[in-house]
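Following up on my earlier thread - several people asked me to post the actual chain instead of describing it. Fair enough. Here it is, all 247 residues.
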Amino acid sequence: MYRLIIADDERVVLHGIKNTIAWDQLGIQVVAWAENGREFYEKAVEYGPDIALVDIRMPEMDGLTAIEKLKPVLEHCQFIIFTAYEDFAYAKRALELGVMAYITKPVLKNEVIEKVKLAIERLERAGNDGRNPEVRKAGNEPAAIDQIKRYMRSHVDSSYTLMDVAEYMQMNPAYLSRYFKEKAHETFVEYDKRLKMERASDLLVSTNMKTYEIANQLGYRSIQHFSRIFKEYTGVTPMEYRQRRRL
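Reply from S.P.:
Thanks for posting it. Predicted structure:
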């Protein structure tokens, strides 16, 4: 099944599209819906849809801005825009973002079905077969958790915070914290600590860096704090760890 998300701040339109089309007959599963641009962005990152039906004019974040932010995360997603504003500037920007279809309101059911079928054809031509779970990776690990972990791994040698990651992901920090625990089965802090302690272990063995230099590189401002956490994680102090591994 291909995964679809719908976003429109008009509830009549949103629920009309969601409830009046036999999506299962098209091989489509409606995995999420949103009533504003920020909610659409967060749910799209979380669910990793194949197809997105998106209104241009929405509160908190307009549809095109959300699509622009999502493009690097959802490379295969087919975006279909619908709007009551027949404005060439919007259409031009939508084309520049790679939006596959532009539908003006009032939205016709048959036109939505036609454009979604075209999206499915494009996905199949690109090799993104939503009916084959072995080919489609998005169903196994949500796009958001993969993106968050990748950011943390690439910034392990720094003093990044939950706020930094939330800003990068364009997510509310409290929501990101809850989401991370739900999907990763450990807290953001626990995963961050594990990443940094594993990195510290590598640096202690593979370099001649002093303990305080490693602590500073990993974002710890107190060597005592760093050493205490390292001992809790490994059972020995940083110096003892280095001595034992180099024997």
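Residues 131-141 have pLDDT under 50 and may be disordered. That should answer part of your original question.
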